[in-house]
Design brief:
The chain is mainly alpha-helical and 148 residues long. The protein has one domain. Helix content is 61%, strand content 4%. It has six helices and two strands, in the order ααββαααα. Strands 1-2 form a two-stranded antiparallel sheet. It is elongated, with a radius of gyration of 18 Å. The C terminus is likely disordered.
Length: 148
């Protein structure tokens, strides 16, 4: 019988922790995005971009405003998903879930690949998954801002 290498077990543990983090993100975003203004701006900008109006959003006075403070990549990524017939709120949610999964996995993989102790990859992934601020950030569609 062929014996598995410990490196494969470490990589499998990193993957399992990443999946657990994605499940945590699914649970924390079950009710939709946070109710601050930033998610509205991002999703509204993505909707405007899908309609061919550019990187703008509607303000409360029914006027267009261009996004100047928020980073433009996030609305562009949501708009790219919005080319398909999907709800943009759901697209933002699943984009955050995937980003959280990828962040946990990449942190573990970096330690697994470039450390002298590959088992530190498990520790790095577990810390990324369990750190409350990481869960809080990925539970809302505001990836680049710390406060609202």
């Amino acid at each position: 019988m062929k014996k598995f290498s410990t490196k494969y077990l470490i990589l499998a543990a990193i993957l399992i922790i990443s999946i657990a983090g994605a499940a945590l993100a699914i649970y924390t975003t079950a009710n939709g995005p946070w109710g601050y203004t930033d998610p509205v701006v991002y999703i509204s900008t993505a909707r405007s971009l899908d309609r061919g109006q550019g990187l703008v959003y509607y303000e409360a006075d029914a006027a267009f405003r261009s996004i100047t403070i928020e980073p433009p990549f996030y609305p562009i990524a949501i708009a790219a998903i919005g080319i398909l017939p999907v709800n943009l709120v759901a697209a933002a949610r699943w984009l955050n879930i995937f980003a959280f999964f990828a962040s946990i996995f990449i942190a573990g993989w970096i330690f697994y690949r470039y450390s002298r102790a590959p088992a530190l990859g498990i520790v790095a992934s577990a810390l990324m998954c369990a750190f409350p601020y990481m869960v809080w950030m990925f539970a809302r569609p505001i990836p680049n801002r710390c406060s609202s």
